[in-house]
Amino acid sequence: MSSSSGNITSVLKETRSFPPSQEFSSQAHVKSLAEYEKLWKEAAEEPEKFWAAQADSLSWVKKWDKVLEWKEPHAKWFLGGKLNVSANCLDRHLSGARKNKAAIIWEGEPGDTRVLTYQMLHREVCKFANVLKNIGAKAGDRVTIYLPMVPEAVIAMLACARIGATHSVIFGGFSAEAVADRNNDAGAKILITSDGGWRRGKIIPLKENVDQALAKSKTIEKVVVLKRCANPVTMKEGRDFWWHDLMDKASADCPAEPFDSEHPLFILYTSGSTGKPKGILHTSAGYLLGTSYSHRLVFDLKEEDIFWCTADVGWITGHSYIVYGPLCNGTTVMMYEGAPNHPKEDRFWDIISRYSVSIFYTAPTAIRAFIKWGDQWLNGHDLSSLRLLGTVGEPINPEAWMWYHKKIGASRCPIVDTWWQTETGSIMISPLPGALATKPGSATRPLPGVVAEVVDKQGNRVGDNQGGFLVVKKPWPAMLRTIYGDDARYQEQYWTQVKGFYFTADGARRDEDQYLWIMGRVDDVLNVAGHRLSTMEVESALVNHPQVAEAAVVGKPDEIKGEGISCFVTLKSGNAPTDELKKALRDHVVKEIGALARPDEIRFTESLPKTRSGKIMRRLLRDIAAGKQTLGDTTTLEDYSILAKLRSDEE
Ligand code: 7RM
């Protein structure tokens, strides 16, 4: 069953396959495997022709002269073209019936609600764009946005886009330190924040964090403060202004100025494996095309859909699939401010049933939390409005996939497992739900226009079912353009590992149906007695044990084997962490994978260290397993107290 190319041994044995129903396929944008393959082939043969045709879906002020200029590793798309991103997301929807369609249906954590139609959203964006101009923002300036999940976050982003300012959204959970670092790296002039945001019934004091951050931020001149929680804040005369005061005085007339296709749209910081965060730079036309195109095809979008992506706007998933992709497509977007377990663990199901959400897009980490909390939370909620489900952020364990499929999708909704990165800007590998049968744990095949491949270190395509590096062989419109202020790092990180190709840093395998199975980051690979094993596959084996909710597997130094296998395991509610269970789990992994994967150590824990977007930080667990103090970057960690707890739990 397992095979090795001298790269990564792949041991996952998943063989289930779920074709879309006739009913789903017949109404889909892409209706069959043959149709998908034809599109993919056309795009691969003449990529510029393909993307030029797709680009007609955008509204251009001036059409481009040239589709692509590629001087590896720098791409310029739609050269000579001019457009305004906010006009594509707003103004062009105002001439017909979409004018009065809901753009955003929002619910705050305390239960307050707001609906903004396209016309209303347009008005707010125009006003806030004038606010920004009135306090000195100009095209090309950087603006930091540090807000909770409220409509004003979207308004601020689109207002920046309208006037050509480059936004840098910082997730509301980040500390003052992280805010200061990002302000300084971007050289931001204006910062937009609020008196606070609601999370699990508590106020996150954003403005307080900003005050601390500003002591260390050299470039911020003006701060706009939204009143969200009636939380007392200190306002510094001449520097800090209330959002509502500035809006009261601003005109609603703000014509959208055209900008070049390659005008910078935003910087988004993402943590590197070591050292300082990287500012990923995205530009205008290519990014907007990539997000709107993928949103339409992957989610098989219909005019009447209510689309809910549960990510925070401070993450790339929020940028691409709450804001730019959906609004460019004139979609109704559901947006929720708070935690999934507030006031109770059924909040998401409650929202889906009350608003009749039709497409639900969330992360495997959330799905594993739902499983851990128990199925009783689904009782009494009508989820029949759902027609399509999605996942993003991590490989999904087949067991979690099956739960999602049965319990949330009623065995009826296709699941799109979407692989992509902050750097790729938009979804790269995913089923087109009417065309491809899904397999639990596989992101399936690349979208038309995306040339993804599994290769060895030399860049040669590896055989079927052999592990290797996931690379992208051809430039694509939404790709990152550089790392802000550090083009050398951009070249080094993404373009030198495998010559001539974009290096994703993920491991993957291609099966006999050409489906791709992402095996996690290549630095999350174990080397056990000469076998390169993906940690994710051992985790999957653990998670399909009935008592396990979540698992993280890392290597620990072992004199004999090179690396031993150390497992951190979270149990489902109501299960006791006993020595018998440890033994049972070891045996279970051996049964599922083989003796080579027998865990050397199992530690039970109540939670795992994760990034704020829900990815397990195995790097920190590796240090803990090795008994080291963690030295690397922990600024993206969601809950610091977990590290101390894990250390004190040591065997
Ligand atoms: C969108 C996002 C990127 C990394 C990526 C992978 C992992 C994301 C999947 C996945 C397996 C998936 N951007 N990843 N999606 N792994 N299957 N469907 O997550 O920049 O924050 O992270 O996330 O390792 O390289 S990100």
Architecture blueprint of SSEs:
Layout: H1 22-27, H2 33-45, H3 47-54, E1 66-71, E2 74-79, E3 82-83, H4 85-89, E4 102-107, E5 113-117, H5 118-134, E6 142-146, H6 151-163, E7 166-169, H7 176-186, E8 190-194, E9 197-199, E10 202-204, H8 206-214, E11 222-226, E12 240-242, H9 243-249, E13 259-260, E14 264-270, E15 278-283, H10 285-298, E16 306-309, H11 316-328, E17 332-336, H12 347-355, E18 359-362, H13 364-373, E19 388-392, H14 398-408, E20 415-418, E21 452-455, E22 467-472, E23 482-483, H15 487-495, E24 502-510, E25 516-521, E26 525-528, E27 531-534, H16 535-543, E28 548-558, E29 562-571, H17 579-592, E30 601-604, H18 618-625, H19 641-648
Parallel strand pairs: 4-17, 6-7, 6-8, 8-11, 11-12, 16-17, 16-18, 18-19, 19-20, 29-30
Antiparallel strand pairs: 1-2, 3-13, 4-5, 9-10, 14-15, 15-23, 21-22, 22-24, 24-25, 26-27, 28-29
Helix pairs in contact: 2-3, 5-6, 7-8, 10-11, 13-14
The chain binds 5'-O-(acetylsulfamoyl)adenosine.
Question: What does it look like?
Answer:
The structure is a single chain. By secondary structure, the protein is α/β, with parallel strands linked by helices. Among the domains are: 86-236, Rossmann fold (3-Layer(aba) Sandwich); 523-650, ANL, C-terminal domain (GMP Synthetase, Chain A, domain 3, 2-Layer Sandwich), CATH 3.30.300. 30% of the residues lie in helices and 23% in strands. It is built from 19 helices and 30 strands. The strands form nine sheets. A seven-stranded mixed β-sheet has the order 5-4-17-16-18-19-20, sandwiched between helices. The protein has a five-stranded parallel β-sheet with strand order 7-6-8-11-12, sandwiched between helices. Strands 21-22-24-25 form a four-stranded antiparallel β-sheet. Strand 19 (388-392), helix 14 (398-408) and strand 20 (415-418) form a beta-alpha-beta unit. Residues 1-6 have low confidence and may be disordered. Bound molecules: 5'-O-(acetylsulfamoyl)adenosine (7RM). 5'-O-(acetylsulfamoyl)adenosine (7RM) binds next to helix 11, strand 20, strand 24 and strand 25.
